[in-house]
Amino acid sequence: MSVMEYTQEMLDSVKKVEATRKSRLSFTPERMTAEEKTEVLNRFHPDHREDEFVILGVGPNKGQKVPKELGHLLQSNSRLLESRIDLSKIDFDTDVLIIGAGGAGASAAIEAHRAGARVIIATKLRIGDANTMMAEGGIQAADKPNDSPIQHYLDAFGGGHFAARPELLRRLVMEAPDAIKWLNELGCLFDKYENGDMVTTHGGGTSRKRMHACKDYSGAEIMRTIRDEVINCQIPVLEYTSAVELIKDDKGQVAGAVLLNMETHDYLIAKAKTVIIATGGAGRLHYQGFPTSNHYGATADGLVLGYRVGVPLLYPETLQYHPTGAIYPSQIRGALVTEKVRSLGAQLVNAEGEAFMNPLETRDVAASAIIRECNERHLGIATPDGVGVWLDSPMIEEIHGEGTIEKRIPGMMKMYMNYGIDMRKVPICVYPTLHYQNGGLEINGEGFTKTIPNLLVAGEAVGGIHGKNRLMGNSLLDVIVFGRNAGKAAAEKAKEVEIGELTIQHVKDYAKELYKADIDTHDVSPVLLPKYARHVRPTDKYLV
Ligand code: MEZ
Fold this sequence. Notes:
Distance between the termini: 36 Å
Structural class: alpha+beta
Bound molecules: (2E)-2-methylbut-2-enedioic acid
Shape: globular
Number of helices: 17
Strand content: 15-25%
Mean pLDDT: 95
Helix content: 25-40%
Low-confidence stretches: 535-544
């Protein structure tokens, strides 16, 4: 494909964008007022489409609404209901079992290992196959003289609609500078000036430049760094081994997990004094049919495991649709176009060449404004793969000089160049993509669930750190901060835990609850891999 394959209609619209670019360089639309934001969110944000949600009939959040696709999984059967599991045959016995090997799982493992605990990581794909790897634009931390964690707190608290749990958000911002230091000392290649100071930029909703980045592959570089450290520490990692159910003991504590070897299809018993759920997000459930920027394994497994054992969910009804997912060409539909493109000055522009919003609105507001531009104002750009708006990337070179795109966002440039689109010269077409699960399992400030002793959660599977909308760069931060803390806390706790008799009685109890609520399901959860996985993996035995 070359840019000549932008349709004639698209090319005509590009001309309009070019015609207004000069005047737009000295004009940025005002940020919306609070009333304007509320209106656009209520009318256009996908979280407000009532018919896309169901009310849960069982479990700790009974009576509350969740997205249909998640509700289905939470109200499906355990795959162990029909299986004979011998809990006396222990395959692994450890102090800390970590489920998931993304940023949170790996950080937790490093700290638990350093604290002297025996640690095992179980992950359904490979270490680092996670949303952490896919994050691009950066990681926030208030470590510059004109900034402070308090300022960071205020930005994130407002951006999350004042719904973040203060004890969690406080930890996030207070421990952010140390998280950057930790990563830097581990060898993470942050962008720096010649004098060694870190380069920082704005993100949507930030009042200070506090986004630290490794060009536009920050998550990949962070994941590389901590994955290497896990390997250096010789922490055992069970790859292609998913957790399908938590195990409790007769005292009601968590006591391990039933694992599934995804190659041999054998069940394995991992007994553990403490368990950390670090399974990440849910983009591959494709809520409301949206494409996603998430990695292949993001199927809400941890939420299912935690919920079935009795851990409440916080804000499961709030999802983040990243405003700028690629909409064209189809090969990259849903792929992330980092917010850094907007941080560097690219405006969101409609088919007529008008900048219709400030590029640094928070994500929920920006996504809603794009949907309004396309669906109500009918000023979107029709592409062969769907309607979108322009992200006027050539503005970046006009503002910061030639070569900036290649230097600061080389990954983006390469992604589009693969399809003959030179984003230095022509705008790119974007539409919201399913990016992040704001809600998740409820924890206390130490990372422990409030209902199941010795069970911790870290990373995207946690609810409440960001409230009902997350700011850019606070997720890479939370996987490090809450991952590290969970690892330390789990190792410490394991010193005093005495495990009783193992049981998975909760699986049967949950099935009874479903029956009593008249919920007739023939499906099983967690699903482990997305539905379309059957086309690319030889076995579909475990797919729903
Ligand atoms: O925090 C994120 O989600 C992130 C850094 C995404 C991006 O736009 O690059």
